[in-house]
């Protein structure tokens, strides 16, 4: 049986893991335990060969490389915890390599597509809210959950910065740029007050038509709606907007360390993925412009 309460405490205290990370790790361990059970084994006696077989099973199921890597980290971390508690004296992940998987290029929009998207909201109260939300997501590379959790006091409109906490306790301070700042000022002038409409003000930055904090799902719906309206995609999502922020920054000369800080990546490996986009663009420009390409 999985020592869930102990593992949760370990991830929280020793690893300072985000809530979403803890949830994912526990799900991964449950999946590995179920796999072992099907093969007549259990966690305490798992061998390296069991871990390898499990990873190859995931690869054969066409799970993404990032998913397989995370499951490997989850299993390794769980056995580190078991060694600390004295429940086992070995980690079956020792010297186990993750099967190589093809890296998927991040999907992103062109600058022209972004501009078309940002032009879609009208001048109604909800339209001004949506313009501010879209401008801010692209300007700051925010996740849907981060946008939903923003409060009025997180936006410094005088200087032009957003304080975003995300899953961790340490907030990251992100410049929002002039267009996003202008859109946010327009939204804060009257539309937000109209959305509150005499109800108790929760302090949330972005409100729905009932005057309540906009949900993560609400952010998804807004992006999908305007993506379709702009003729870009019926399935545009917040991650593609975030990818576009990162891709355009890299293509215009941003260094990896700064981009890592802006995106809130703990590991710079995640940020390095966007370098491939810049390289692809350089090759495309070379092929189109060099006379002897």
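^ structure tokens above, recovered residues below v
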């Amino acid at each position: 049986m999985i020592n869930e309460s102990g593992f949760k405490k370990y991830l929280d205290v020793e690893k300072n893991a985000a809530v979403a990370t803890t949830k994912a790790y526990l799900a991964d361990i449950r999946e590995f335990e179920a796999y072992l059970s099907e093969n007549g084994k259990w966690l305490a006696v798992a061998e390296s060969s069991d871990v390898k077989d499990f990873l190859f099973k995931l690869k054969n199921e066409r799970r993404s490389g990032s998913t397989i890597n995370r499951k490997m980290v989850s299993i390794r971390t769980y056995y580190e915890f078991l060694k600390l508690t004295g429940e086992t004296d070995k980690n079956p992940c020792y010297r186990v390599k993750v099967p190589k998987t093809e890296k998927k290029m991040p999907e992103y929009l062109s600058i022209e597509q972004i501009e078309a998207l940002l032009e879609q909201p009208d001048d109604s109260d909800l339209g001004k809210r949506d313009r501010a939300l879209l401008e801010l997501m692209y300007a700051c590379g925010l996740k849907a959950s981060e946008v939903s959790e923003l409060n009025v006091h997180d936006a410094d409109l005088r200087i032009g910065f957003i304080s975003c906490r995300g899953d961790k306790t340490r907030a990251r301070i992100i410049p929002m740029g002039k267009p996003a700042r202008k859109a946010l000022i327009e939204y804060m002038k009257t539309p937000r007050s109209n959305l509150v409409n005499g109800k108790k003000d929760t302090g949330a930055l972005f409100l729905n038509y009932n005057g309540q904090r906009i949900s993560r799902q609400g952010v998804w719906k807004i992006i999908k709606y305007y993506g379709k309206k702009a003729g870009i995609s019926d399935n545009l999502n917040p991650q593609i907007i975030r990818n576009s922020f990162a891709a355009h920054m890299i293509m215009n000369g941003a260094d990896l360390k700064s981009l890592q800080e802006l995106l809130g990546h703990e590991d710079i490996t995640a940020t390095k993925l966007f370098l491939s986009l810049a390289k692809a663009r350089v090759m495309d420009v070379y092929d189109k412009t060099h006379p002897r390409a």
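Residues 4-85 form a domain with the DNA polymerase; domain 1 fold (CATH 1.10.150).
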